[in-house]
Design goal:
heterodimer, A: 325 residues, mainly alpha, two-stranded antiparallel ribbon, 13 helices, 2 strands, 77% helix, globular, B: mainly alpha, 10 helices, elongated
Chain lengths: 325, 308
Amino acid sequence: MTVFLIRRFMQSGVVLLAMSVLVFVGVYAIGDPIALLINPQATQSEIDLAIRNLGLDRPLWEQYIVFLIGALKGNLGDSFIHNVPALKLIFRRLPATLELVSLAMLMAVIIGIPLGMWAGLKAKSISSQTIMAGSILGFSLPSFWVGIMLVIVFSITLGLLPTSGRGETVNFLGVGVSFLTWDGIKHLILPVINLSLFPMALVIRLTRAGMQETLPLDFVKLARAKGLTTQRVILVHVLKNIMIPIVTVVGINFGGLLAFAVVTETVFAWPGMGKLIIDSINLLDRPVVVAYLLLTVLMFTIINLVVDIFYSVLDPRVRLGDRKE
Amino acid sequence: MNSLPKDSAPMITGKPTDLEAPFHRLIRDFTESKLAVGALVVFICIILVALLSPWISSQNPYDLAEIDILDGRLPPGSKGINGMTYLLGTDDQGRDMLSAMFYGLRISLGVGVVSGFVALTLGTLIGLAAAYLGGKTDDLLMRIVDLQLGFPSILIAMILLAVLGRGVDKMVCALVVTQWAYFARIVRGAALSERKKEYIEAAECLALSPSRITFRHLLPNCLPPLIVVGTVNVAHAIALEATLSFLGIGLPITEPSLGLLISNGYEYILSGRYWISFFPGVALFITIASINLVADQLREVLNPRLRT
């Protein structure tokens, strides 16, 4: 296990290093670093000073080391537009995104698992086929399109829910959240539905596949033979066995949702970090873009690492297979 | 000896039908699903519309001489000042939405199909190389594939577009980078399982060159899963391009794909002028849904093992 952990940690380190090189080369080598990193309104003497301060007169590998050391210290430069450290700006927006993503994932699980179980139990019924057809749509339709349709139907035609923003927020554990006020909840409903459709489709398909795999197994027959009620057999015995792949996939996709929140946040003008990154790309606020990309890659690597470790604990074949190689 | 050609004549005529048989079977199996046939017909119509857009549109929406800003934001079915009827209304510049959609479809499909094809070629070559060379090369290539598939495609595309900037070529480049790994993985898997079969052994016994075995014997037998993944990925590419263009980091304004049209109309939705966004959205929906339905049926027909 220790060997597995060390190896896995080293792999993640290599990934992070490779990604930092990619972003570094992207911003510093392909684009013009002066234009990208220095305010265009600066005077010539300011530019010269900045070039020296940024070490742009030194060779590329030396610049990369300087960049890396800065990144490790949590210094990824200041935003051109807002004039505050880029990381600070992102962390200020992080709670709004996390609230959206967590609620969307929660909804995907709460609705997806029962629907998937139903589709697995009554595979031939029309309701199940409708659920499965719906899950295909959940996979294939672009989420910005679904978001616009939600706005057209619920906000404009029916006039039930607000189209944009976060609504009234209250302070909860030091950060502002929307889900504790009625106004906030009204603002949350559409974005959460929008963001949850993809993971919901995934959970439905996984649960259904798990049900169909597990139902014919001997332990289910044994449970039935013991005279347990159908409810107890399905809700306790079967559900316990199909939860492992669902938990894993939900974990992996949490990171994916953080990236996908960009789309939902743009459609509903939700003030999270996804909205920030799109605005920053369009305003050429490169330090924020670099900071966001590196931060997201870091979060992703950590999530993948945690899921891998979790998996190797649940399924020893993973790390045993690794050792054999 | 003279009678030999005569005797073997039935064999010769029999041969093409034997070769055609899988194709016939494919068509017969495919037409079993009425929904899939309908989707295929719709998709072919979409391709035709995209190809013929300059000729079937009532105006060239990007020729400033043909549009009139006074006709801006007219609702569907209204008449313009020069007597033209706008079936689906006009956008803020006075463009006929139907014509703009035809042109947009052309760009969306073009970007999706070109990037899908390049990614398929690249991924196939890399997948075959991994399967053929094996060992350290295989390990390294598959590590890269795993690594990339661990990140969501939208994040990778965003990184690339943030670095490269807007543009059709850059968008195609970003879509290829996000897609090649799927092809590489599927081709490697198919090639590895095919390599163990006897016809490859037979070809090796005939001392055929490795490249001939790979491309003439191995590759054709890896095609079925490749076709399925290729179809699905074209739909993915179109959806991803539309998403990125909607976000404003994809195609430039000079290349208005469906995603960009939707994005342009989005600010007018709130004031009730739904048609500027809505109709391109419907076109996008029909395109993606029809490709996915076709792909779903192809999966059923070509790869019974994948049936769920």
